[in-house]
Amino acid sequence: MNPAKTLPVLLSPRVERLHPPFPVFRLRAWHGLAVAAIVVVASGAAVAQGGPTQLSPIGVIMKWMPLLLSGFVFNIAISLMAMTLGTVVGLALGLMAVSETMPVRKVSWAVTQFFRNSPWLVLLFFAMFLVPYEFRLLGVTVPFPDWIKAVIGFSLPVMANVSEIVRGAIRSIPDGQWESAEALAFSRRQTMWMIILPQCLRRMLPPWMNLYSLVTMATVLASVVGVSEMLTLTSQVHAAEGGRPELLAPLYGFALLCFFVYCYPIDRLTRRLEHRFQVRL
Amino acid sequence: MAPAEQPAWTPDQPIVRLRDVRKSFGSLEVLKGITMDVAKGEAICIIGPSGSGKSTLIRCINALVAIDEGSILVEGQEVNDPKLDKLALRRKVGMVFQQYNLFPHKTALQNVMMAPVHVLKQDRREVEDRARALMRKVRLEGKEDAYPGELSGGQQQRVAIARSLAMRPDIMLFDEVTAALDPETVKEVLQTIRQLVEDGLTCLIVTHEMGFAREVADHVYFTDRGVIVEHGPPRDILSNPREERTKAFLEQVL
């Protein structure tokens, strides 16, 4: 008996189950690029009616591209540094959250909840005005420029979220792992670093990457406190070009495009990892 | 007994000695005064209905569970002592669990090697040779580089036994190690344990396998509701039980 030959109609839905049963609209990379292209081209058309002395929007973007991109690189740099700082401190907080000592757990809980439930912009202001301009240590003056304060400001919510990610991942490891490590005479610290945390990595990676995406997009908030990142520069470029209203869409569209091109692949990768880890577990 | 003035333990004394051990979880009293002696090289089987405190009993011996009252001496060392060096105790007492609990991010060989390398700080190459020998001993040659997820339940359990043996324990605790296995793989795990008993390793085995207990055990303890109802050589306990509760239990499982 060969069901594949005798019952081809019955077999096909089984195969279909691997894919969604109906077409699902998914935002793909080319959608973003298409929108951006339309914006840029349409604005170019609008300018064709303008005076000959004015540069077209594409011309403006080309002219200021190096400056704008350097601003974008600054955004990335801030996001990477905030993520690094926040991850290191957040990991410590997350480990404190599963400590055997109650006061340590309480402190971690309070700090984590406070910074996790605060608006990022408020935390940014908080860092801006509470961190001094410079820092004197043993006669050496260490200046704290605004961008460093922004890094600190963004690292606060990162820290709190990483703390939650770490705590959740550690809690998700079955008790049997702790027990068998204990029975093999591993100390608690050894168990944590050699047995529990390595298993947590795959559980932590997708939410951590997702958080990174959010931080990158949030870095434009630094424009509010005057850091020369991409949004600040875009607005300055717009002013320098005489504040022509038809330049608004292409200039900010370009900024959007930069972020999209950077964050979208991270998002795709996150999803792929999530999927792969789910299948394995 | 004053723990500070303990005489040195000698192998002719019981290697594990429990005196009136009591343990409660909240209002539930799980162990209601357990007393037993295990001689070096002896194989003990602990049988009894689920929830009779068997697992708690052997978890007390390596201090995974702290007891409320009583005394547990392992090689003359008091386990019910706040100053106890738990890690030192656990280096002497190996344990294998029902759910294997292998480390899933490490290969079988790495699972076996980890504790000697990191806990005992032994030379990695020497440990590796020993780990490979242990893998042969549990008849898993060729599976050294497999991850636990790629092994069957019985194979995982045998790696878990090898992992515990790699610490060269004086005493092994087995907590219903075949309860989660398919009937076909139970045999291979029991075969491995039987071999250890024949090698003269002191084994405390919590089990539901009555046939295995009859063949392997030097002494069988029947526990029910936190007390030892009766104990003795397997042919007495399993074939001619004196207590009604033992008879009822054996009728159910046999």
UniProtKB/TrEMBL annotation, chain A:
TM spans (from-to): 29-48, 68-98, 118-135, 209-227, 247-266
BP GO terms, sorted: amino acid transport
Membrane topology: Multi-pass membrane protein
Pfam family, one: BPD_transp_1
UniProt keyword list: Amino-acid transport, Cell membrane, Membrane, Transmembrane, Transmembrane helix, Transport
Record keyword Repeat present: no
Entries under InterPro entries matching the protein: AA_ABC_transptr_permease_3TM (IPR010065), ArtM/GltK/GlnP/TcyL/YhdX-like (IPR043429), MetI-like (IPR000515), MetI-like_sf (IPR035906)
The ABC transmembrane type-1 domain, residue ranges: 72-270
Gene Ontology MF, one: transmembrane transporter activity
Principal place of residence: membrane
Gene Ontology CC annotations of this record: ATP-binding cassette (ABC) transporter complex
CDD domains according to UniProt: TM_PBP2 (cd06261)
Subcellular location as annotated: Cell inner membrane; Cell membrane
Protein family: Belongs to the binding-protein-dependent transport system permease family. HisMQ subfamily.
PANTHER family: L-CYSTINE TRANSPORT SYSTEM PERMEASE PROTEIN TCYL (PTHR30614:SF0), MEMBRANE COMPONENT OF AMINO ACID ABC TRANSPORTER (PTHR30614)
NCBIfam families reported in the protein's UniProt record: HEQRo_perm_3TM
Name under which the protein is recorded: Glutamate transport membrane-spanning protein
Record organism: Lutibaculum baratangense AMV1
TrEMBL record, chain B:
Domain of life of the organism encoding this protein: Bacteria
GO MF term (any one): ABC-type amino acid transporter activity
Family, as annotated: Belongs to the ABC transporter superfamily.
Protein name: Glutamine ABC transporter, ATP-binding protein
Domain (ABC transporter): residue spans on this chain: 16-250
Lineage: Bacteria, Pseudomonadati, Pseudomonadota, Alphaproteobacteria, Hyphomicrobiales
CDD domains: ABC_HisP_GlnQ
Keyword Transport: yes
UniProt KW keywords: ATP-binding, Nucleotide-binding, Transport
The organism of origin for this protein: Lutibaculum baratangense AMV1
SUPFAM superfamilies referenced in this protein's UniProt entry, alphabetically: P-loop containing nucleoside triphosphate hydrolases
